[in-house]
Amino acid sequence: MPFPRRTAHWKPRDLREAIRACKDHAREKKRFGVDRLAALLDVTVETLYKWMADGRMPASKIPAFEHACGAHYVTEYLAGGAGRIVITLPKGHPADAESLAALQAIIADATAKLIRCYRGEASVEEVHAELTVSLQALAWHRENVARLGAPELDLGLGGDDA
Q1: Nearest by Cα to 16 from 48, 46, 67, 51
Q2: I need a surface site. Which of 15, 47, 59, 68 has the fewest CB within 10 A?
């Protein structure tokens, strides 16, 4: 059963959901079925289905699984569970006006929700999610500025922003 369409800031609730979300992403974006993923991981289809059903996967298989799927939901779930924020590393190119306006809007939305939370008009979970998105956006720009001196070349290999 496929999960509801995920938004850009969707986060899995458990490891099973993260594994299935990666599998769904591979099917939707790369047209890879479970047979293909199992072959890329050098495991049987039954093993892959067992990992999805149990919500367990050997740690050594996670990077290969996420690379094959083109999504990083498992890593993001594990990092979030450890209280960490995950960002995709920027390439070190100057931001345009649209990107900075989007950053400003994200911060303004988070601040507005924070005010509503302190007034008792917004849920803690809602504000927590909004603040996390805001912190991730700021962290991305922080790293981008740090890399401006030596920007990376875009080799067309395609970063996966799942």
Answers
A1: 51
A2: 59
CA dihedral 99, 75, 48, 71 (to 10 degrees): 10
Output the six-digit token pair for 75: 């890593």
Report the pLDDT value the prediction gives residue 65, as an integer from 0 to 100. Answer: 97
Instruction: With beta carbons less than 8 A apart as the criterion, state whether 146 and 94 touch.
Output: no
CB hemisphere CA count around 67 (13 angstroms): 8
Q: Rounded to an integer, what distance in angstroms lies between the CA atom of residue 128 and that of residue 13?
A: 15
pLDDT score of 3 more than 90: no
Q: Which CATH number fits domain 15-81: 3.10.180, 2.40.128, 3.30.70, 1.10.260?
A: 1.10.260
CA-to-CA distance for 64 and 59, rounded, in angstroms? 10
The rounded distance, in Å, linking the Cα atoms of 113 and 119 is 10
Q: Where are the domains of the chain?
A: 15-81, 97-146
* Tokens 């509801």 belong to residue: 4
pLDDT at 1: 44
Instruction: Pick 74 or 83 by higher pLDDT.
Output: 74
